Amino acid sequence: IEPAIEPKSVSSASTLGQIRVTTDLCDKSPAAMLSAGARTDWGFFVSRFEKIVYSHMDGVAMSTDLEDLRGVFSSTEFERFRKLHTRSLNQQLRDLFGMLCCAGSIEAASLFMTAGGLKVTDTSTCLNNGSDDDEGISLGAPCAAQPLYHAAMGGSPEAINWLLELGADPAVPASDGTTPFYIACERGHTTVVHLLYNLGVDMTASDQDGTSPALIAAANGHTDVIKFLHKVAVDLRAPGHIYLDEQFALLRRNVTPLSVARELGQDEVAEYLETALGSNAEKRVRSDDPMLDRARKAGVADRLKPIPDTLLTATRPGSGAQEQIQ
């Protein structure tokens, strides 16, 4: 939201304050505008902060951006506004701080952290709604996550190491159950996967739907990640559950990384798994029918009645879609 230009004789009040930006100030930097006595509203700070953050995420940031940012944060107008709207402003700073960690912009992130009094344990909104190349499967809805999760999603080992020095915990999951290691596998950030492995994180922790890091890496065709997981002895035959679409309508239950790779046409991953795992590539570590196994052990298997195929469906709450159990 860009602040409107108003004649000197006209002023308009808003619920968050007043803005009086004259024509001769509009070509100045945000810091210069504030030092010249410009009054601001919410839109002024949001637009300036977002402009700087997005320039860092797009890789087109300039050194002057940081100088302007320091000027804004040190201005009396910023302090005035912060006192009036501490909660709203700090939430905005937390969200933008997470985005800067995702972009690996440590210096800018440090400025936001100091200005907002932020901590590495603060959570912010994470829009995990697409892979880095906008292809493949990324099933995360907006969730709350700590800064290190954002850094792992962006594939920035430098930001991760910086946050670790500040006391961040690499094992803390986001609100949807996905861990930094999971999101790094999903995005194919092999360097970050290596780093988190060396920190001793759980490499098999699944999300809330039962999708493991190996399954999501195979689904997205990240062969290098799959090769690394195999090298460090992660069981790539272990089954799990995965949705194959972002509408949560196509569910696969108790499937292996190989079967998922085959179904989604990830030929390179499928070929590697077939070669690496040999004839037992599809071996599952748990029974497809545990109830039948228990009945056999109890000697009552003959009493079980077969379930009609028409009943072998499952519906995700709220989706309104039926899914054939595989």
From TrEMBL:
Ranges for region Disordered: 283-326
At which residues are the ANK repeats? 176-208, 209-241
Which SMART domains does UniProt cross-reference here?
A: ANK
Keyword list (alphabetical) reads:
ANK repeat, Repeat
- Which domain of life does this protein belong to? Eukaryota
Keyword flag Repeat: yes
**Biased amino acid composition, Basic and acidic residues:** 283-306
- Kindly indicate where the leader peptide sits in this chain: none
Pfam families named among the record's database cross-references? Ank_2 (PF12796)
Q: Which InterPro entries match?
A: Ank_Repeat/CDKN_Inhibitor, Ankyrin_rpt, Ankyrin_rpt-contain_sf
For this entry, the protein name equals: Uncharacterized protein
Which organism was this protein described from?
Haptolina brevifila
**Lineage, opening ranks:** Eukaryota, Haptista, Haptophyta, Prymnesiophyceae, Prymnesiales
